[in-house]
Give the backbone structure.
Amino acid sequence: MPWGRRIAAAAAAAGLALAMGCGGEDSATVTDGGATTVAPAQTFPATGPDAAVTTVPATTPSPGTGTGVAPVLTDGADVDAARDVLRRYVDAFVAADGAAACELLTEESAEAFLLAVGSAVGATTCADAFTATTRQVPTEQRDAFRSGIIDRLTVSGDTATGRLTVIGVSNDFRLVRRFGDWKIANLPGQ
């Protein structure tokens, strides 16, 4: 694979090289036990100058079917904490801050990212690989992530899912709670 394609593939694997800009749906659909709840999107401030990340507001899904499955939550402290991890990941990408980004990944995800791109960018740590990879993405394209949309954020027990959309291209995230902290458990798109 040519160098440029390797960098683009690595950036995509990290949720970095989405088609740049903002877009996506203006509502989210949450399904729990066969019942569906639709909620309009709401804008929350992100860090950085003129930054805004759009997320889905809290909703309460209809009661489940009593199957013993953990309830799916779309509001509360757990959802806010998971949302904060995704926001911080986006901020780390925009800033090309590999240390901050890799801190938000599970150990397995950080290792997988390093394995996927480390040799291509001459890095031996996740942080160095992330920084080198993101610096390959032009600043104006990284800046487009400031107005990305985070939606479909749900929590079920110690797992959470969410979606980041930038210029109409979406990547799904899976998060897990480890020792009380939410960590990104997948490289977006995987």
User: Anything to note?
Assistant: Residues 3-184 form one domain. Confidence is low (pLDDT under 50) at residues 1-66. The first strand starts at residue 27 and ends at 32.
